[in-house]
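I am writing to request your help with a piece of structural work I have in hand. Thank you for your consideration; the sequence and its tokens are set out here:
=====
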Amino acid sequence: MSKLLYIAFIMIFTQNYVMVQFLGICPFLGVSKKLDSAVGMTGAVVFVMTLASAVTWLIFHYVMEPLNLDYLSTIIFILVIAALVQFVEIFLKKYAKGLYQALGIYLPLITTNCIVLAATLLNIDEEYTFIQSIVNGLAAGVGFGLALVLFCGVRQALENAKPPKSFEGLPITMVAAALTSLTFMGFTGMAENLFH
């Protein structure tokens, strides 16, 4: 149980893909302007990452390893992720049209979001069990969502600020993202002390 809590803690705080490893920046910057879009993207990413972690673990251990196809893991994992994203897109288009329109182009970008692929590959590299892989995918998605929602608040506060002319727009957004990432780096070292 402590191993599962450890995996969850590090993926949300100390190894957060967006704020610590700087992966998945495109959807992070693109969807963090409005809270409803950020929450919707979080739900989609959590769902895709959790399911992708489970499905790719099963495919890797029960199909690829017995057939010595380990070298195809990146390609096969991307195909699995693309299929899951298509499922989410079809579901949202049918049952949540407002959210589907709010996410726009960023929904298909989950397919190419490197944090989804990173989570599935990390499961294999770290030799996680099936349950540990699911926890890793879920926690990585929650970590992405936490970063997205926090940064959404920062960006809304920035709209009321008056930065110097040269910092308006993308420059102040990047500075704010860097400062937000420092908050996550403050958790470094806590996981080892809490769970070992």
In short: Residues 2-149 form one domain.
